[in-house]
Sequence to fold (1314 residues):
Amino acid sequence: MKSAQDRWSRIYITSVEPRVHNGSWPIKRAIGQPVHVRAGAIVDGHDRMCAQLRITQIGGATEELMLTPSGNDEYTATFVPDSPGRYAYQVRAWVDRYGSWQHQFNRRREGGAPEEELQVELLDGAAILESYAANAPLAELTQIMAFVEAYRSGNVEAALDPKTMALVRRHDPQLGAVESEAIAVEVDHPLAACAAWYEFFPRSAADKDGQHATLDDAARRLPGIRDMGFDVVYLPPIHPIGYQFRKGKDNHPTARPDEPGSPWAIGTEGGGHTSVHEDLGGMEALDRFVATADKLGLRVALDIALQCSPDHPWVTSNPQWFRKRADGTIRYAENPPKKYQDVYPFDFECKDWRALWEALKNVFEFWMGRGINIFRVDNPHTKPLAFWEWCLARLKALDPNAIFLAEAFTRPKTMYTLAKLGFNNSYTYFTWRNTKDEIVNYVRELTRTNVVEYFRPNFWPNTPDILHEYLATGGRPAHISRFVLAATLSPVYGVYGPPYEHIVCVQHPDREEYADNEKYEIRNWNWNDPHSLQPLFARVNRIRRENPALQQLREIHFLNTRNPNLIAYYKVADANLVLCVVTLDPYQEQKGTLTLPLEAMGLADHTPFQLDDLLGGNNYIWQGRKHTIRLDPKVMPAQLYRVRKRMRTEADFDYYN
Amino acid sequence: MKSAQDRWSRIYITSVEPRVHNGSWPIKRAIGQPVHVRAGAIVDGHDRMCAQLRITQIGGATEELMLTPSGNDEYTATFVPDSPGRYAYQVRAWVDRYGSWQHQFNRRREGGAPEEELQVELLDGAAILESYAANAPLAELTQIMAFVEAYRSGNVEAALDPKTMALVRRHDPQLGAVESEAIAVEVDHPLAACAAWYEFFPRSAADKDGQHATLDDAARRLPGIRDMGFDVVYLPPIHPIGYQFRKGKDNHPTARPDEPGSPWAIGTEGGGHTSVHEDLGGMEALDRFVATADKLGLRVALDIALQCSPDHPWVTSNPQWFRKRADGTIRYAENPPKKYQDVYPFDFECKDWRALWEALKNVFEFWMGRGINIFRVDNPHTKPLAFWEWCLARLKALDPNAIFLAEAFTRPKTMYTLAKLGFNNSYTYFTWRNTKDEIVNYVRELTRTNVVEYFRPNFWPNTPDILHEYLATGGRPAHISRFVLAATLSPVYGVYGPPYEHIVCVQHPDREEYADNEKYEIRNWNWNDPHSLQPLFARVNRIRRENPALQQLREIHFLNTRNPNLIAYYKVADANLVLCVVTLDPYQEQKGTLTLPLEAMGLADHTPFQLDDLLGGNNYIWQGRKHTIRLDPKVMPAQLYRVRKRMRTEADFDYYN
Fold:
């Protein structure tokens, strides 16, 4: 029979945070982002406790930290992962026998306990110290035993020696220690936590109108995209496009012979998910495109859509991977009564599912082998969640820097679950959150609830599938507001660039998407247009780079403006504080009264503070809580201020006098 | 190798509620209290799902219910346990293959799909039906196969026959079904969820001043306590009281020979935790007391304090159960520099801990054997949590109707953990929550957070240890307010009766407790005093019995009164709605404006409604949201109204004209 201490413990760990879904799924961090661990632990009576945090990098080293009591039986500690991959952290707690004894001994002394009592208690202290000595190396053993002797000889002063605690703490036999379950942490590349994405169709990158561009043409657009300050260049699928049931312009059920088809109808006899469209210049052109991006400091993201055109090689080589109808034909995609005859979904439940899953995983591995490890995954919610859980775990073991963006526009539980089981970034409802209440409530859900631990929003004001009515009717002011909101509310955001920067506002008559949709035809864009939003993109992305407050998601605070058309918030990271004010009315000037919570912002009521107008380039001095704000959407619908907590020296202010 | 469906599932169960601490601890219900189960479950794509709730009584029957979709991938069902003990519930979900097929078939038909398409799909439907038939008994097999034939012969009408679904649902092979973990439910006796407790010292029950009463004297007080409407009579410890270091009047360190000592200093050579004090009449008097209570419909609760006086028989028979100091003496209770020499705590970690734990459990079992199964446990937080977890599980297996009240006035995590690991009722901070904000916030914490699933508050306005300054200075009005608050905010409450009903307001000069504390001396009380609060106790307890709204904890809604000294709330259970208005100012009249949320209360803005004044016996007609309220503490500091949602007939209102 084991000793009592091995069988039960006086300590109960009541909670360990952060964690996701009771610890079933990892919390997410990027390299350099701290994990603030908070544990609750209790013990009966008045004894003190030691609590330790143990952080293990899977396949790597283990680190140990002591947690600090923060009151009310809570303990805290922070660790900052410095390399990507999977970690686990765990809390261990035990009764601090020596510490409890010393604390009580001091209280006895201070309470005026008689000398006889202190002498008796010293003997107890000696016994505890002696039990610790067994774990100590020889040199320290000698020191501890010297204390034991001093206690035994009745030396009260020795019991108060602060050196003892430091000496013995690490030799505590930790009798009756308890451990929490281990909680997983997934540590990602920093771009998973902060990045600006730019989407464009490479086939539209030609100089000549209507011409099908190659990836070499597209590579010539990269310096411009870099100059606009983007981090990730995301390309819709670049594979051969099927012929059968090819869609024409504006999703017409039949295509004219010269129409290029939708890039999401993947595969011809010439190749499938691991081939590059001939008209894009083939695999070598892609390699050159990636190399150019690399040189510019840009990262390339590919779109992986796990579906086939009827011409995909797998349709003939592996017909068992597709669902058949009772008449023997392969079942095309449909959501009755809608039919998508140009697309065959895979049958993830087919008898040969293991080979199919392996083949699909190999698609990602193929591109990872060519230097691409950022993927936008098309419609992951129409494939089994178990497939993603299996596939992403293996791909991340292969490359812990890989980033997967889930393009799931579906119900909340599915979107959140996809994030839990491994997607590093997620499309969101941001596109449809246009009023102040909608934005505030949604951003609070993403930042103030446990969602922030695993779901990294990637805010897109538009996509090839979505041109919201607000943008279509609001024109240039609406485009500016929504861009600034996306880029400042969320550290990860993206834009389907060309039509956005040229403020294309023509909606399809029946659908919430662009008319003359680039998905079905080649468009021609002006790639260097100073009257477009390109300069705004460049400016806002530079502001993001220069202000750490905008590179994080958690510290965002909405402010009262006394006007439902004016949204204001500040974000803060250490000394950096950025204040954003945006009008949601693209038509009329709006006026409001901004109330600043000065204490929370680290400002004083009676001291002026300086605001650097980051979009306008001006500077202001404000003082006090209430400020009138006025935004004319025709002039500038958004204001970004860096708030300086300390005034500059007077010499800096000559322009102000 | 198992089939794909046995290896992975398309369904993820994302949440199952209610549960406590990730399901580690049971949720609590009393017999007849419903468990509203809410589960989240998702599947890829557009398929439909079946979700089933399985409820198992441990050692009993299993019941199965279908959960109903309530939108947004949530499913709900309710079960009502009808006998005490431990239950487990579990959610099971699977893809509804036939239901999904039929739904899509209907959409095809309604969408005008061509006949050929429907014919092909019918064959798929036939295959699904046929796979279900394997599980059906012969009679139903024949019916299902008739449908299979009809489908195969292209009979579109057969596919729409609503009979099919009812016929086949229960034969679904449930391929790829997933199950949540099982969640435990502890079902208690109804008195655990709703009861009024009355505490008194039986030794003070004599008619003659200063005389030590017996339990037979005390039994003569029971009809009066029953008439005041209490459910549980709680007695402080009734065991022999130690002599060594016996405390005198007012906790004096020494007692005069005629002083009775504190009942919590348990044990003499004559007996310990399973004996009854000779002066109380011994065991036979207790048996008679319990029998009298039984006849009156009252339940007796005993106080179990796991500690010994130095004279307790165990001190000599089992000295190994106590901690020794280095000089060989037994360590008395202390919190340096405070000493409690009249009490020896047990050493729960001693080498002989198994025998000690067993002996302590046997104390409860002994009294359960004498017909007592309600226990107020003294200071459980100074004993190991693991002991309580072990002990309570065994005692409840013995008697699932047993009720344990934790007297733990300590930090929140420990109080909540004691409730999680088995205590059915808990003392609370109510005694120290006297302002409106304090009361509202505390009651919300207890009723609007997950705490409500496991922590059953037992609200006490006073105890022998606590006479709060608010009561001491506020006199009769404060006593009435606090009593009404305790009895209406919480369905379980208690009062240390005699000094409360006689409005004893003399505090000990140094401590927050009664002067001339009954813990250390015999008091004499007037047991039938119409000028005491006894008539109020009777009235309020009758109101509680007559109004189900006051017998539950969850449906409590605080109302705006525009006055911090006036607290108002309503409680509701089905058609019963009780409105409570209490003044927190025991000195001056307070006036406020009550705003009623009429829709939420089930009332209409333009229809008058009737209020029965339950304390005053009047009736009122109100209309609209805003009502002026005025409470004069000298007249009556609390108002309780039953709000009638429907007006009585006009004939009932003649008094009103």
DSSP finds 17 helices and 29 strands in chain B. Residues 598 and 604 of chain B are 6 Å apart (CA to CA). The radius of gyration of chain B is 31 Å.
